[in-house]
Write a structure and sequence with these properties.
The complex is a heterotrimer of chains A (129), B (159) and C (494).
Chain A: H1 2-10, H2 12-30, H3 34-54, H4 68-74, H5 85-115, H6 120-128
Helix pairs in contact in A: 2-3, 3-5
Chain B: H1 3-8, H2 17-39, H3 48-65, H4 68-74, H5 77-100, H6 119-151
Helix pairs in contact in B: 2-3, 3-4, 3-6, 5-6
Chain C: H1 5-23, H2 31-56, E1 59-62, E2 73-76, H3 78-105, H4 110-129, H5 133-152, H6 158-187, H7 192-198, H8 205-223, H9 232-238, H10 241-266, H11 269-274, H12 277-299, H13 304-323, H14 328-358, H15 370-373, H16 375-389, H17 395-410, H18 413-438, H19 458-476, H20 478-489
Antiparallel strand pairs in C: 1-2
The chains are: A mainly alpha (129), B mainly alpha (159), C mainly alpha (494).
Amino acid sequence: MDGLMSEIVAKYNYWIYVILMMIGFYAMLAKRNLVKKLFGLNIFQTAIILMFVSAGVKHGAKIPILDKHEVLEHGVNVAQVVNPLPHVLMLTAIVVSVSVTGVALAILQRIYRRYGTLEEDEILEKIKE
Amino acid sequence: MTDDQDQLQTKAGTSGPIVEMAVRIMTPFIQLFGLYVIAHGHYSPGGGFQGGVILGSAYILLGIAFNQQIAMRYFSERVNNMLASGGALIYVGTGVVCALLGGLFLDYSALDRILHLGPIEWRSMGIFIVEVGVGLTVMSIMTSLFWDLGSGGELEKGL
Amino acid sequence: MTGNLHIYVLALPLVGALLVNLLGRYSLRLVPPLVLGALALSFAAALKVLSGVLEHGAFSYTVGNWQPPFGIELVVDHLSALMLVLVSAVALVASFASLHSVARELADRQQHFFTLYLILIAGLHGLILTGDAFNLYVLLEITSITTYGLIAMGRGRAPLSSFNYIIMGSIAACFYLLGVGYLYILTGTLNMADIAHIFPTVQGNVAVATAFAFMLIGLWIKMAFFPLHGWLPRAYSDAPIGTGVLVAPLMTKVTVYLMIRVMFSVFTPQYEFFQHPGVQNAIVWVAALAIVCASILALGQRDLRRMLTYIIVAEVGYMVGGVWLANSQGLTGAILHIVNDALMTLCLFLVVAAIASRVGSLHFDNLTGLYRKMPLTMAAFTVGAFAMIGVPPTCGFYSKWYLILGGIEAGQWPYVVALVFSSLVNAVLFFRIIEIAYFRTEGDGHVPLPGPIAEAPQMILQPLLLAAVALILVGLATGPLVEQVIRVAVPGGL
């Protein structure tokens, strides 16, 4: 029990990401409103982005903005600088997330204009008629 | 709506003189900051996507504070479409030009044959051309997303 | 120039898409030449790439001259050159039918449709070429987002089916991204060859297994492997005809190719097949179940397009089972089936486009007497049907032959039984349509039609006949294809 608690406290950030992912997943599966499903997807993607970014953090490290003259003189001490590669990858992932959200919202507008509602069960009722 | 809220809303559906004046002062600074972020992308935090979002947010701010018709006077749909395709064409075009000039795709040192600055300098400056293209495209797309979604596709009456 | 050819295969449709977007608003007559020109040049470049690879061997290419593992690497070997030729050929042939049917269905939105269309094709080319795990995620999302848009342009239920596809497709891509994240945390690099290089020194077997499971499940949802196939029937049958002709033959097959890449370039065959043998058996069982269930579901359909989409799900089951059989016959059969299934699905969906352009609805009751009115179309349909059933000398027979041989050699009898069962069910399905179209006359609940039913328009008929002839030619050319291209692509030691 003691070992388990210290595990959870030491890696608390990863546990938060897991909880966020599960919230997003639950919203996608269980909610009936289509917009809520879409935002569950958004929460899921955000949790993955957070996990990636926190994978590059080091103890006592600073942000990866370097001063040109200092680098030319002393060189870069990698252990003092946060890994910038996950940041760059996650910029791309954020762009992808925004694009998917944009396309999905446009499609939801079309659905609303045609069926008059955004609840999944009401739409299925209207289709059966 | 109550009486004082009525007084705040002008006839054109915009948000009232205080907000209008504040937005009119802020917009040039926002756009300048967006250009700064794009231009510093290859050297410090920033880049095409971030700067493009800031530039787009200037137009979105216009769309929120004033109404859609007035905002679209500054950035019409035709220009929007041209900039969006043009920005992406700048990106792919740079890559293809580099490939045609004998280097690899997006190998900026091949551009040394057009403008003599030295291959190493070109590898640092070439990213800037690509960032400009990305910034233009992202600005157009952010604005277009807001306008199309906010007006339900008809672009007549916005939020 | 020749060193950059595969980049032109990717860049030409992309430039074409942007030009269609720019120039299409001024004159819609510029759209067909731009589309066909870009795709024809791209196909020519892909042919040259394949001949270059057959002569000189595989090579890798670094974008921007940044050396791997820091830069993005493109891998051009026999398998990817073959897939490039396949995708560009299918795209070119399908675009004729798409141009015609979009001009009819979506009259004033052609430039938007073809912008998305060309970006989708560029994304597919990029997926085939890439050698970097994160780049694969980005290109996968590019192809998926354009497909969401293309499907949502249809009528009726299309936006709702597309939204369902958005939810499931984005979950799949996020799972894949999670897997890549795990691999990055474990190995510190994103380049596929480099990850394979570092793997033997990595501790933490549970993490590696989790990464593999996430990536695999993400790819399975994208390729509609039963039981994760729920989005596919509605999405592909509610889409506009012009979308179905391109997307149905290509998307799932390229995702199967991606699964082969991930399994053989990133993880090694030793790891997947031999460390946990129970997993391999289980997956072949699930593949057999996929084939049987999808074939039975296809039997219950009364609409031609919906039936074809369930057959696509069954074909994906063939390919996944073939790859996981863990012997070279099975893998050869799976790769050959990617090529053959793309051509067969192209032929059948072109038949659907031809019938839809004249008859309007694809319900079985509307197909009566078509053999007399559209003889060439139905002749091509018969060739396609024989290929799906697996009759020599069409190509479908040879890939099934390799798959059955591989199944017998691996001792996976449920898989072999499922393959034979599926051939019989396909025979029932297609002969039922041939019977309706040939023997039944009108008056059996026949819906009156908009115009005189003549032969299909030339723009759909010529590609259709080309596809039907290609089925037979590729079947006859199976020998050289397997010997020179596919055998080299299969990794040794299997």
